[in-house]
Amino acid sequence: MCGIAGIMALPGGAPPTMAQLLAMCATIVHRGPDQDGLTVEGEVALGMRRLSIIDLAGGRQPIANEDGSVITVFNGEIYNFRELRQELEKRGHVFRTRTDTEVIVHGYEEYGLGFADRLNGMFAIALYDAKLRRLVLARDHLGIKPLYYALTGSHLVFGSEVKALLASGLVPRRLDPEGLADFLAWEYVPGASTLFRDIRKLEAAHLLAVDRQSPQVRPRAFWDIPEGEEEQVTAGEWQERVEGQLRESVRRQLVSDVPLGAFLSGGVDSSLVVAAMGPARTFSIGFDDPSYNELGWARKAAAHLGVDHRDEVIRPQVGELFGKLVYHLDDPIGDFSIFPTYLVSRLARQHVTVVLSGDGGDELFGGYETYLAQELAGRYQRLPACLRQGVIEPAAGLLKPRPVKKGWVNKGKRFLEGAVLPRSLGHARWRLFAADRLQQELLTPEIRAQIERPRSSHIEALFAKAGARGPLARGLYVDVKSYLCDNILVKVDRMSMAVSLEARVPFLDKDLVALAFRMPDRFKVDGGRTKVLLKEVAVRRLPRECVYRPKEGFSIPIKNWLARELRPLLEDLLAPDRLAAGGVFSPRCVERLKREHLSGRANHSHILWSLMVFEAWRDRWLEGEAQRRVRFEVGGKGREARESLRSEERCA
Q1: Could you tell me if residue 32 is inside a domain?
Q2: What average pLDDT does range 461-479 have in this prediction?
Q3: Residue 213 within a domain
Q4: N or C: at which end does the chain have fewer Cβ atoms within 10 angstroms?
Q5: Counting beta carbons within 10 angstroms of the beta carbon of residue 447, is it exposed (0 to 12), middle (13 to 18) or buried (19 or more)?
């Protein structure tokens, strides 16, 4: 595990320097505090920061093939590297280390650009072929590890985090209004986009090969979730298959030369991972708000499984953490659960270097209540319009949200908010927090003029790409490709790496993913029940009450904290004069949202939090440390609006 960064000079571009590479790698020391590895050879610079996990003595990068013509830096773990090594040694390749990294260079030699699909693991790879003068970037099948790149015209710049690209001095800091609109809508920027106009994400299961002599930047997919036909076997046989494949996935991911543990919430997914580990060290956190505290369930599961468990209750001192976490959200998400994810990672890092998590189970096996909401919405829409629009929706609007986490009032209001959104979004409409109508009021005319596509476009495109799968399978495909990849995995990667902790995701083993998508829909969501078959597997290993308790999710009482502990930060970041100077958001609209939320008339925590995150992100990353201005590209003509903002208004 590490962080990587580098530069390739294109024709006419100045050769990269060691100083540039050092500056880039200095921004990602938290990803790899143990070692650095740097090389500058003519037009290419490759660098890395290493968190030593496998072959502690011999795994230092960059690593080359026998004659040094192929060299790589790599972030992640290759779980099938021993099998690949045996295969490659039989074909005559000579290995010099015990590290998994070395199979990348020999695999590329043997299989060319087809090498990436042969890897089973999580990875972001940069590889340089000196003979062909070709740079290859590749990202793992499910997007567990991040990889960003920017084409400046004279250089291709890449890295594990956006801050590394900015540190090169080659990439401009320009806001992408389309990315901003997506961020406000979904709390993340989907697909290949970021909030920076010039910085792109290499998407999951994509590879980018750039030949210096004739540079073309066209990422191509090397894998997709197999469509396949549903296998009609009995429920019992499916249970055996799923449990067996999960145990095999966990077994693969236990490979480590350093201490290893697991996150444990007491829910189905994390508990099944821990059950497959055998003796383990587990970690969880809770809150002093009882409706958000799940420690009792984690302790019950830990006691049943006989593991070495540690947990911690946190208090709402999140204001002190805000600036630190924004530093690690240079490609921001608006997900509240960055806080508990960071805190449980910090707790785990005191004892281990690697953890396994249960992420991915909901997206593969139908665990979200949004699937149930989609079924209910069909029945709701059959009610007479006069009843829906004239009675139910106005009455719900009069109800104040409750301070507890869920409850029938909060769930009912949220259901109605999503039910009126476009049906083309399917179950994803319950994840949309700032639809086009609100954005018309929230964004200034200058920003709105630069936004062309609707916020539903990426979801609708993914539904179309899902092919001829059944309705639920198409929804799960969308979740894996969007919400999981661009939100959940980003959160886990950034918050765990902030404390130099490697997080592995056994549910996202590509063989387990393929198996899950061959399973009939009725074994996932059926009759108002979610994750049907996986819970039947889990009840073999866990107390029944742990398996069939209501789903809570990993969140914090942010809606309450905004009115109390986080109120000063809210007022500072969203002050009217500050917003007016920024020229992005309407102060009048934001003041209305704040007023309604703070009075308890509405729950605007999602959009208010996203606005706060954006404002702090803009201070720290868009404008940089020295340049206090907002840049816009209006109508493609490069107009720049400069506004001086007081330093005391900044949250760095």
Answers
A1: yes
A2: 92
A3: yes
A4: C
A5: buried
